[in-house]
Fold this protein.
Amino acid sequence: MGKLTANQIKNLVEPGTYEDGEGLRLLVKPSGRKTWVLRFQLNGKRREMGLGSYPQLDLKKARAAAYENKVQILHGTDPLAKRQAEQAAQREAERRELAHLITFEKLATDYRDAHGSSWSEKWRKGWLRKLELYVFPTVGKLSADQIETKHLIKALQPIWSTKTRTADEVRGQIEHILDAARARGLRTGENPARWRGHLENLLSRHEKKKARKRLHHPALNWQDLPKLMEALRKDTSHVSVAAQLLILTGARSHMVRFACWDEFDLESGRWSLPDERMKTRQAFAIPLAPEVVSLLKNLPKIGRESPYVFPGSGRSGVMHANSIRNLLHGLDYKSITRHGFRSTFRDWAGEQTSFPREICELSLAHDERGETESAYSRSDFFEKRRELMEVWAQYATSKGGSDSEIIQNDAGTR
């Protein structure tokens, strides 16, 4: 027979532990909350498990619950472990039910929205477009935990040999999306999009290796640059000026196309690009050599209403993305790319000057310093980069590269 009575329990207000007997006890907390606990011993270990709160579980129900659990104990079953297993199974069932309601398409847009704030609008659209073309037809309507290796092989194999670079980018996107789904509890187990130790055994590693080699942008040899610059100087069009600005600053194509007049301080020779204009999403300043300043000062403005240095008539408001490429093709430079001029500059700087590697890389907005080093060394070495870019401009605008040896000697003394 228990020691507690219904009225006694109802009137208990003093915090403490009140024994009913045979391991059943009532805990009264300082807040006034009352809970039932069963203490038992199994396999030499003393354990406690909560049965519920009073008054939802009154004295009669608490004794019944204690009795049921003690019967399990007599049969060698740990009621606490059993309950935890049942709760885990319930959570897993709920997870699976929720996971089935969220399709891969939804997970992809969720991932883009979560991570895409630092992406350019063009990249955001292209990122999702690749999935729409190559992945959604196969797994778009599946939930994350339904996607298996066989589905990814079906999606990737048709384009693996013909569009290997795109296929591998898509594979990486799938891997990131499924990792995010796992972090949200929408998937368990290995990621079927993982390359190392998994898909590398099912898709051609040779094709991927070849695609990586093709990633290098065809570039003009630095020895041939002065000849191209001479041809560009004879063309006074805005596109030619844009091409020269691209080459002399080491900038990316989109940085030049969307350049605004208010970004330039021609008196101090500085081109300041805000966060949203940079691939790294970090503001960056480019030093302008005297040749670049002169180029921009002599450039007539087209369209008084446009803020852009190189305006265009299309929806973007700037010159067409292929304008510089078409100009180069017209000059019979069909085997090089706009982005390749950055490689031309880097090869020249490495072979013909003694400027530190760090300065050369920073001139291309590549900060190779680690997080710790960057935290202590916050300088962007603007003036050092100015020296390098001035020597670069001198070489690029020289007559057929005849001054390269002089430039090398001058650079070596800096």
In short: Residues 369-378, 402-414 have pLDDT under 50 and may be disordered.
